[in-house]
Amino acid sequence: MHRRYRLTRSHDFDAVYRRGRSVSTRFLVLYWFPREDESEEPRLGLAVPKRVGSAADRNRAKRRLRELWRARLESIPTGCDYVLVVRPGFVEAAESRDADWLGERLDEVLGKASA
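Predicted structure:
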């Protein structure tokens, strides 16, 4: 995923957490906040806490979620910043299932956000 599609600075994350809205599912929490420049592409930040698993597990989860996000970029509303937080249990569940299951979990949380 290109850098322009990512949240990288902590004050961007803080703005989404503090001023944004959130929805949650069993494995994911999605925060989003509309930016002033709505013409811009959506940006994603990933938060995977240490209690989720080892560093290798957390990085694998981030790579897989970034790839799923990139595949859905066309359908995601523009002009928003998003932070996707992974909950404990996600890594174990994702290891025993395929990419379609992960995509369904991401679609589930995105569907709740658009409702």
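Summary: The first helix runs from residue 10 to 19.
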